[in-house]
Design a protein that fits this description.
Chain lengths: 360, 360, 360, 360
């Protein structure tokens, strides 16, 4: 049923398949009067698009966004914004070899089991390609957040496999992130990681990693009891990204080994504002932002498409082997950075509007 | 705004504060004809209630559930079920010392900042006490899932601080979990953990830990593209539990260090069914259950209430110190086990009904 | 499935049956800081309760509301408000004669067909009694609207059967409405209507009628394209009231016979504000309030319970006859007036909050 | 905020403006495996399109629908279906004269007041043109309903101004409706109505009227307590159509003059099925379909665009006069017939799926 929408006040509805005519999103709830053109959105898409560097898939797709509604004379009208990205790679390839089998750890089997019908071209609706529409929508949300609160959302590559960057979340800048093709702000470690990915690619294999994200400044008061806690909605948004397997905020899993006497964030007055001296809470307490930076991490598994022979079964229930050919992403991380930012922006923007409904 | 509801077809709406007259939940979408009485719900509440062992708070509260609607002659009518739990500990204590300050890492400050008004008695709406209503609702969801699919949801304590139990998720039984007061199925490690908690309690401190959960058998096909992926809805539900800081499914964060060639779950035919030989996916692929056991973990931070002096600020912006007194939970885990199970049941039940709408 | 909730920002969730232990409602989204006690709600309930005059059912039920959550020290906390009304008339009567047959034009047959199970006592969930919880919730919404905008919602009896009162919607006051037991502000016609109802009651029969409602002053800007138009949400709310069969706004059905040159409401400046010289639009244009009074009408059919012999069928499919005994409402109108007001308040309040989310 | 979506399981999200690049709709929740192509949708659009006869606007617009997602190899995939209709008449005209004033009884003023910005070209988002996307979505819903239940939804013109056709709702066929350009199945009266409209058109004026609709056969059990009653959802859908001012089901407003002893629909067994001998209920009792035909009426006001001089105000608050020029619809009815059918299909289809979730 209806699971293609996210958000209550700032709401995105997503449509499209990898190799259909186009993919797109409808955004409801964007306030009127925001200056907006394709130029505000395209840069985020360019950061996600394939073919941008040697460590991502070499598939070429321009991912050019069109605004089809909701904007007039360069400003939003307050009504539904429709975004569309035409697919260029449409039906260009022969997918008949995929029709008869289920690729391991893709959605082939679950879609087949659920719907009894499957769009094999590029994975259809299961393709990570559809995240492009979230990135486009997120760019609008980001602009709103920055304009209203000066809020900046910055994500980066934190680990690749077992390689861990040395990063202080609150100090990461977009420039540092964009300084290398991996989007890891630890320049030294970044090179090591890039080499690691290149080596894995040569083996026709893939590798996972972790993306970190920090949002600041954040106004206090965003998030709602009991189920729409800010971290709950962030978790849902992040876990809806293809290939994500985990989410943690603030101290996260590491915080489970701490004592309360250490983990509790002491309050302190700072220039008239209530701040905390530590931020193990990750900027959210009891589901509501406390004004400290929000920081969280998202775990991504290794990409399922690899160029090695794998065991699987056919749609008619025979054991068989499968080996993918052609272009693939050895590591999802560099292209996932803008996706994480976009999803965070969508969640924050929704809660910003929900918050505003109660301010007089 | 409205954030107290969870689910689309099987939907819970939660109300109540720690020390008001009562707490409760309304459940919409429970099918008609399910045999149901308070006796089906009370056991789950008893597993969550305070005072049940020496390693949880010694506060006494019976947590007796009443069914106020939706059941007649021992069967559900198909209409809204109203559950209520009266608060016995209501207003029994003097909370005036809390009125003027914000307890560190509680919701005191964020509620104050958001609403400008705060229910200080026992934390009001931020109290973990309100999870009792989710546990009650979850008991109904569990009964439905077990009756329709034979589905069993089993959670357990996986780690306490740095102590890690040795557990094979798919083999854990409820009996093993209930064999000790910690609810850790690794009996040897459980004793060590219990002693650890007891020592920390003596110090007036608290400790975090991880809860694991396994759901089996699970039918294929539960979960929806794009945002209502099964793991996304599970993540949201888990991250809405008080004190949770992280969620991972299948390989989770550890999976980020794996190669695709290892992480991909090979398909294989088993007695006519499609199965996978490994389950790094955690039972969900492309957001939809694949028929393998679903397993996930939830990270809980150390309880915020500790009996040690802490730095904080007053509501009028002065630095001050605060020390809690009286009864507290040194570790949330044993009581969180039934909460995790209940939230999982609510999510699975919602998706089961969503799935059924499309089966002919 | 979940159909017991109404509203997106100001949201009511309704539960309970006629003869169960209690009925109630959960209200999400009420802003913090509103002064609220049972005394703000009870007067509206008293206007709806049975036994208040000779032209309504003589059943006695106090309909005493309790606030179970969301209010502390006489003010709303911003979190979910739980309202409960205990049923006094619970299971007092023998309903066994109803078990085996379907009363004509009640919900007996449709509930039986849909759920396979039926709460025969007083109609269970289908009883108009459950509207009491909407009235209670509406009282809170009304207070908010009056406090924020000075908005007043006034409903009245416009027709009883073929008797039509002479009423100018914008000039009706609550005092005029309450001046007689029928709640018809045309005092002369009211007496005739009352006599008419009394005569019909003696025949053991019932009669329908129309309720009018006017809301003023209304700020411009409430309502949303495309589906959540203000009149669409009002229509849904009114058509969800038991026994309502029609809704019209502004010129309504009569407007279909008018020419555009007459029906169009000319704009004119009035003390610096944009007003219209006529108001055939009923205060809403293109789904959004235009600042003029909102006026609409709701048609109510004659009450289904009559004390005459009627043809029907048994649950096992035999033709039979049925005659109700005891107390009944010969005309739903006097008690429906506060229900119409309450439903209008719920809709307006929801849209007021939705509107506020976009004001800076 | 988000008001562009309708439905819970079968859900439409609507976007686009009259003179932007395109309009469209996203449909979530359409079951997989339905045979679907543009050819299933286009006929409904052709019935709504402008220029189809002498009594509607002479504007030419092909309204050609494209399916952009959710269909593969001629069958629905179960995932979101995106429909788009390109606007041909885009920005072809000079609207600068409209920029400075508010046309009476259009949405000009309310959109200006709400959003502070307005798309003057063809009314932008307020244009009845956006109903084309609902018609397209409704065609898919209709196909599903007919395929699953043999359900047929037939609407027709019942009155034009004061001219009333003689119609027995349950016997109206689509062929009768399509037999004349007005879509009135009473052939004699139709000609009189057509002449009436032609005369009014010559005067540069417009006229309203009533559309009737009948749905049959309908399975029992569709509709939900308390707020999502079937007639409540129908009322909302109908009142969201541009220019609609009233809705009634079954006996409707006329039923208010009836006695209960006449209005109650006696149950009777008919070939083993429970039927009623009359159908004043209009096929719905207590919010749930009872298996009898559903019939309702929708009132449409005269079209606001007339070619006569009217009083109004400028955006800067000066009184002025306005006279529209060019093409206009003198009567919305013939083109509204397929819109009413489409909205009914969307509501029924949503409730059909909601119903199915509970059938075993």
């Amino acid at each position: 049923m209806a699971g293609d929408s996210l958000g209550k006040l700032f709401k995105i509805t997503n449509w499209g398949e990898s190799h259909g005519p186009a993919i797109g999103a409808v955004i409801e709830g964007c306030p009127a009067g925001l200056e907006l053109s394709e130029a505000d959105i395209q840069p985020a898409l360019d950061r996600r698009k394939p073919g941008q560097s040697k460590i991502v898939t070499q598939r070429k797709e321009a991912d050019q966004v069109q605004i089809l509604s909701g904007v007039i004379d360069g400003k939003t009208t307050g009504t539904a914004i429709s975004l569309m990205i035409q697919n260029q790679d449409q039906k260009s390839k022969d997918y008949s070899n995929l029709k008869e089998l289920f690729r391991p750890s893709h959605g082939d089997y679950t879609y087949h089991a659920k719907y009894g019908i499957r769009d094999v071209a590029g994975g259809g609706r299961t393709s990570a390609r559809v995240t492009a529409t979230s990135v486009a929508a997120g760019a609008i949300a980001s602009k709103l957040l920055e304009q209203n609160y000066g809020m900046k959302i910055t994500a980066w590559v934190e680990t690749v496999g077992e390689l861990v960057a040395n990063i202080e979340p609150t100090s990461v800048t977009r420039d540092q992130v964009e300084a290398n093709i991996l989007r890891c702000p630890d320049a030294d470690k970044a090179q090591e990681m890039i080499d690691h990915i290149a080596a894995i690619r040569k083996q026709g294999d893939s590798i996972g990693g972790i993306i970190g994200c920090c949002i600041q400044p954040v106004p206090t008061g965003l998030g709602e009891p009991i189920f729409d806690k800010l971290e709950a909605d962030l978790a849902k948004a992040m876990m809806s990204i293809n290939a994500s397997k985990g989410f943690e905020i603030g101290s996260g899993f590491a915080g489970t080994t701490m004592r309360g006497s250490v983990h509790n964030d002491p309050f302190v007055m700072e220039q008239g504002d209530v701040k905390t001296t530590t931020n193990y809470s990750g900027g959210v307490q009891a589901g509501i932002s406390n004004g400290m930076p929000i920081n969280f991490k998202v775990a991504f598994k290794p990409v399922a498409t690899i160029l090695q022979k794998q065991q699987t079964v056919t749609t008619s229930g025979e054991n068989t082997e499968y080996q993918a050919r052609g272009r693939h992403d050895p590591c999802v991380l560099p292209r996932a950075v803008p996706i994480v930012e976009a999803m965070a922006a969508l969640v924050l923007c929704d809660h910003m509007l929900r918050y505003r409904a109660y301010q007089s």
